[in-house]
Design a protein that fits this description.
Blueprint lengths: L17 E3 H8 L3 H10 L5 E3 L2 E5 H11 L5
Length: 72
């Protein structure tokens, strides 16, 4: 049984929603440069399309989920 997550290159990605760097920046309330840094460092997986990047929406949500911490 194949995993259909965006990390599985051989799986069906027809249902994956891709976001532009600007959309990710807006969603995370950070600058586009911050998103580019996350992509280039490998912290946020992305697909290169020509000269631009597209980030799977599920990966953005997962990154944000992992980034939460409890203060106190």
């Amino acid at each position: 049984m194949a995993d259909s997550s965006p990390k599985d290159v051989s799986g069906d990605i027809s249902g994956v929603t891709f976001l532009t760097v600007a959309e990710v920046a807006s969603m995370m309330r950070v600058s586009k440069m911050t998103v580019y840094r996350l992509v280039h460092s490998g912290e946020l997986p992305a697909v290169r399309v020509g000269r631009s990047f597209r980030v799977p929406e599920d990966e953005v949500n997962e990154y944000l989920r992992k980034s939460f911490y409890s203060a106190g």
